[in-house]
Amino acid sequence: MDVVVDLRPSRPETTDLVTRGAGRFLVSLGYAPLAEVTLPNGRRADLMALGPKGDVLIVEVKSGLEDFRVDRKWPEYAPYCDAFYFAVSPDFPEGILPEEPGLIVADGFGGAVVREAPVAPLAPARRKALTLAFARMAALRAAGVTAERLSL
Q1: What is the pTM of this model?
Q2: Sheet holding 102-106, edge to edge
Q3: Chain segment 21-51, per-residue pLDDT in tens
Q4: pLDDT digits (tens, 9 = 90+) for 82-94
């Protein structure tokens, strides 16, 4: 009797690998990413990143087709970023994701932009409030304080 072993990572493992690779990729572009950021509207961004020129990105990690099908909250991130991306593993089925957001393909080591996200610049007052909240969250996390929610 042959034993078949499935060596593919589990859904949580895939999420962790894609998140780590997308974060590393953002760092390579000069961004400072934070994982698991709860936005003022209650939605949780998998990655939120502040760029060297003050631009704000949000990246939603999709571990697989089922994860995408059951999660339709991604349009609610728009008020809190200049650009929005999905990040998926290299084996994610092509042509499933909507064409509007950007697309990053990532594994545990890094990633690449497959499709650039359209840019919708934040209003200056919103950008200032988000940047300050992001900086405070990063400083609290660096100090060992559990900080998950952005306070505007």
Answers
A1: 0.90
A2: 32-38, 44-50, 56-62, 83-88, 102-106, 111-115
A3: 999 999 999 999 999 999 999 999 999 999 9
A4: 999 999 999 998 8
Distance between CA atoms of residues 55 and 124, nearest Å: 11
Listed residue (21, 39, 9) closest to 149, CA to CA: 39
Residues making up the chain, counted from first to last: 152
Task: Quote the tokens at residue 70.
Answer: 């059951």
**CA-to-CA separations, 24 to 78, 134, 150, in angstroms, rounded:** 23, 18, 22
Are the beta carbons of 40 and 150 closer than 8 angstroms?
yes
Amino acid at 90: P
> Would you list the DSSP string of the chain?
-PPP---SPPHHHHHHHHHHHHHHHHHHTT-EEEEEEE-TTS-EEEEEEE-TTS-EEEEEEE-SHHHHHH---GGGGGGG-SEEEEEE-TTSPTT-S-SSSEEEEE-SS-EEEEEPPPP-PPPHHHHHHHHHHHHHHHHHHHTT----B---
User: Residue 125 region, left (φ>0) first, then alpha (ψ -120 to 50), else beta?
Assistant: alpha
Q: In this structure, how many other beta carbons lie within 10 angstroms of the beta carbon of residue 133?
A: 19
Can you read off the two tokens belonging to residue 79? 């008020």
